Amino acid sequence: MPILRDFERRLGNLVEGFFSTTFRSGLQPVELAKRVMREMDAGKTVGVRDVWAPNRFVFELSTEDAARFGSVEQALVAELKQVVRDTALERGWGLVGPPEVGLEIDDTLTRGKLRCRATFAEGAEQLPPAVPAAGEAGLVLLHDDRVVDTFRLPQTATIGRSPSCDIVLTDPGASRRHAQIVRRDDGYVVTDLDSTNGTMVNGQPVAERLLVDGDRLVIGSTQLEFRSG
Question: How many CB atoms neighbour CB 213 within 10 A?
């Protein structure tokens, strides 16, 4: 995913050469970033109109892993905070306060294992759910016609079960790489990627289609509505 690739690139640039000698085994920094994103998704709260995600994360690490992370802890924490901001922005989630990340030692954990506590911590700097700019499009995930999640659409967005997709679905009826939405000069176009169950728009199967505001996409049993911004 783009957020994880950016995380590894930025952190690698800050501590150039460190990963090749220190992180050959044991817990990898990117595993903490992945855990942050999972905890935000699992812990998000859906309000009447907005979705809010946890913003405070405390990691419990083994003594050995904590020692290995010690020399890059400041850079790692800073980049994990950016992962929280980037994930909230990409998914249209709000944060009740600025991102907070802490690392603690738990001597009962073995190398490579971790625990994470994700909570809501109110702060002076609240980050409301991102509002798409004029002309910026998004998808909303629906359940019984109620919005339960939001996704902002970049230039190209792949949808499916694969963790490498830009919009990851847990729906078993979705293919690993099910569909793709691309922004063209004439608007956003959805293309089915030879999925097993096909892609539906307003109840009709499509191979490729230009989307208009309010179009309903069905992928497996997942319902998504296109918002043109």
Answer: 11
Q: Environment class of residue 84 by beta-carbon count within 10 Å: exposed (0-12), middle (13-18) or buried (19+)?
A: buried
- How does DSSP classify residue 80? H
Which burial class, exposed, middle or buried, applies to 160 when counting CB atoms under 10 A from its CB (0-12, 13-18, 19+)? buried
Coil, strand or helix at 216: strand
Q: In what order do the strands lie in the sheet with 56-61?
A: 100-105, 56-61, 114-119
Mean pLDDT of 172-179: 96
Pairing between β-strand 204-206 and β-strand 199-201 as defined by DSSP bridges:
antiparallel
pLDDT score of 132: 55
Picking from 87, 91, 9, 7, the residue whose alpha carbon sits closest to that of residue 55 is 87
Beta bridge partners of 190: 181, 209
Tell me the whole-structure pTM to 2 decimals: 0.64
Residue 92: band (very low, low, confident or very high) from pLDDT cuts 50, 70, 90: confident
Strand partners, 174: none
For the record, the structure tokens of 139 come out as: 């998808």
Q: Taking residues 38-67, what's their average pLDDT?
A: 89
